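Task card 7
Instruction: Convert sequence to structure tokens.
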Amino acid sequence: MAEEETYQERQENELSVLQAMFMDDFEDLNPGDHSRGVEYRLHLLPTQGMSFTSDVHVTVDLRVRYPPHYPDELPSLTLENAKGIFTNDKTFKKQLDSAAKKLRGEINKCVLR
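Output:
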């Protein structure tokens, strides 16, 4: 029978996946030292449409901090550096937290919608 992954191993594996998916839009805020926990920032942009214009009018950074027992505990999610989007709305934050709650116990929060 295979050994179960530790919380730290699961978190490290998720970081690797996110780094591969987001490349330059991923920033590890504790590079090389996750002993104090995992914290990272994703720079989020809308998907480019068929027009392929480089004009981006909406961006936001999603800062994520994992508690020690993530994914069985909810991560801390904070929106920062918003451009063209109002992030102080409590409804917006409630929707983000609600999506995270539905995924409790699962890794790879990149599916938050």
